[in-house]
Amino acid sequence: MRWKSWVPLSTVKASTTGNTGSMRYTRHRYPTEETALSHTGPQGHTNPQDQYERIGGRAGCSFTQTLIHLLKGNIGTGLLGLPLSVKYSGLVLGPISLVIMGIIAVHCMDLLVKCSHHLGAKKGKPFLTYGEAMEYSMENVSWMCKHSIYGRRFINLFLIITQLGFCCVYIVFLSENIKQVIEAVNGTTVNCQNNQTTLIVSSFDSRLYMLCFLPFIILLVFIRKLKHLAPWSLVANFAMCGSAVVIFWYSLTNIQYPISLPYAGKAADYPLFFGIAIFAFEGIGVVLPLENRMQRPQTFSKVLYLGMTLVTLLYLSLGTIGYLCFGDQIGPSITLNLPNCWLYHIVKLLYCFGIYITYALQFYVAAEILIPPVMAHIPQRWQFPADLTIRTSLVILTCALAVLIPELDLVIALVGSVSSSFLALILPPILQILTFHNEGLPAWVLLKNITISLIGIVGFSAGTYITMNEIVNRSCPRYSNSTIC
Fold first, then answer.
1. Computed from CA positions of residues 172, 173, 175, 177, in that sequence, does the dihedral angle turn out positive or negative?
2. In sequence order, what E strands does 152-281 have?
3. Potential cystine with 281: which of 41, 105, 369, 405 (Cβ 3.0-4.6 Å)?
4. pLDDT of the residue at 191
5. Residues ≥6 apart with Cβ < 8 Å to 107
6. Phi, psi of 111 (to 5 degrees)
């Protein structure tokens, strides 16, 4: 779940503000993922940021603006699930694992930027997408050259899976939080200090709430120009930011003593930690667009490392503090553990509003990859209804998947394990190996890259298996006689 979003800059050159920021865009040739500015002159990979030239002069984002965009692109709804991930991994092992994952994630982001620079200079192209970088890197290997186009398609496939997976998470998040608010509102006291609740009234199944949201989400994605969403996105940014501050403060001031939580979780639960954590850290899609729009892109490395350090510290603090506050009772989203009083109902509703707007921004990425190729084969007079039909079908697909897996923590872990692990961990080290295949990478670099990719592959395999197994176990009582399962 996240606040993060990038928009495919090969389709739109956006001044992004994360998932919920305003965007202005210029049409480009390919409706794929993000586009980045690489070198405009030849240079080696040992000093990839020494000789930048900015197209259009100094127009672009300052250091501070880029840092803010990077923070917005990485801090989002995935943050709310991190206390549960710390529960799965343990009070000591969890924070240590989050730090390690943060270091690996930011290193992979840096690898993607450097490879994009090098390949852009080699091809004489100022803009490269993630998919184009993979395609051109495969051209460096003789036996892969003829099939390099599949590198781009592979990246696009996982971008689509990732973005639609985010949308599924948002639907589940909306249903769980709105359901809790409606159930508690009739029995909730106005006294937030004592948190007195007279009676919780049971409501409908969360899947019925998903179906209720469906027409409103369809109407939302019918807004095909994101600039029309810009004012609402700005409001959503403030709503989510204010809600996060209240959540953090409540957790910090309500830590239970004495603390008797396990230092390390069960080994069988650790893959679930991996899936949730990598879902939160999967902000690699915003890196190339932000670097492209900097006034002084040679300082982007400083922005990247400073910004991701702040992100990691925030993840570490809220994940740990949230687990300390609620202990083993922590829910899939920390919002579900907030008291049943008017203040925290407002917090949940504000966050839900932000997620609702964010759905359109995340959906836009997948739509811009999938829809234009279809439109190219449809007569002009039928293109508008066909566009709306495809958008409706994709929303129904995400809702159907959410209905099939109405468990927030499992949806997050599954999306993180399946797609985020590929884009954020497995592919960037492989991209570097392919990019500098003919230029002699040191043995320690090869070993390091292979190790990172193997970590991603193991996390992908174990996380997907454990999550799917848990989905089946939880679904059995819901869909059939538990003795049969």
1. positive
2. none
3. 105
4. 62
5. 452
6. -60, -40
Write the burial class of residue 241 (CB in 10 Å: 0-12 exposed, 13-18 middle, 19+ buried).
Answer: middle
Query: Which of 132, 241, 166, 131 shows the shortest CA–CA distance to 1?
Result: 166
What residue type is 155 in one-letter code? I
Helix then strand count (H, E) for the chain reads 16, 2
Measured between alpha carbons, how far is 216 from 199 in angstroms, rounded to an integer? 30
How far is it, in rounded angstroms, from Cα 269 to Cα 392? 36
CB 287 within 8 A of CB 112: yes
pTM of the model: 0.80
Cα angle 332-412-185, degrees, rounded to a multiple of 5: 35
Alpha-carbon distance values, 339 to 166, 186, 195 (Å): 27, 14, 6
Q: What sign has the CA pseudo-torsion 201, 203, 209, 215? A: negative
- Residue 237's φ and ψ, nearest 5 degrees, are -60, -50
C-alpha torsion 429→433→439→441, nearest 10: 60
Containing 237, the helix (H) or strand (E) segment is: helix 230-253
| Cβ contact 16:33 at 8 Å | no
* pLDDT at residue number 1: 40
How far apart CA 17 and CA 201 sit, in angstroms, is: 39
pLDDT tens digits along 426-482: 999 999 999 998 888 899 999 999 999 999 999 999 999 999 999 988 877 665 554
Quote the tokens at residue 358. Answer: 């964010």
Report how far residue 8's alpha carbon sits from residue 285's, in angstroms, rounded to the nearest whole number: 9
Query: Each residue of 344-360: b (16+ CB within 10 Å) or e?
Result: bbebbebbbbbbbbbbb
Q: Dmax of the chain from CA atoms?
A: 71
Neighbours of 437 (CB within 10 A): 16
Q: What would the DSSP string read from start to end of 301-351?
A: HHHHHHHHHHHHHHHHHHHHHHHHHHGGG--SSGGGGS-SSHHHHHHHHHH
Which ranges constitute the DSSP H helices of 127-148? 130-138
| Residue 192 CB partners (closer than 8 Å, separation 6+) | 339, 341, 342, 343, 344
What are the tens digits of pLDDT across the range 87-117? 999 999 999 999 999 999 999 999 998 998 8
Tokens of 41: 């002159």
Banded pLDDT at 124 (limits 50, 70, 90): confident
In a 13 Å sphere around the CA of 472, the CA atoms on its Cβ side amount to 8
pLDDT digits (tens, 9 = 90+) for 250-305: 999 999 887 889 999 899 999 999 999 999 887 777 787 777 777 777 788 888 89
pLDDT of residue 201: 60
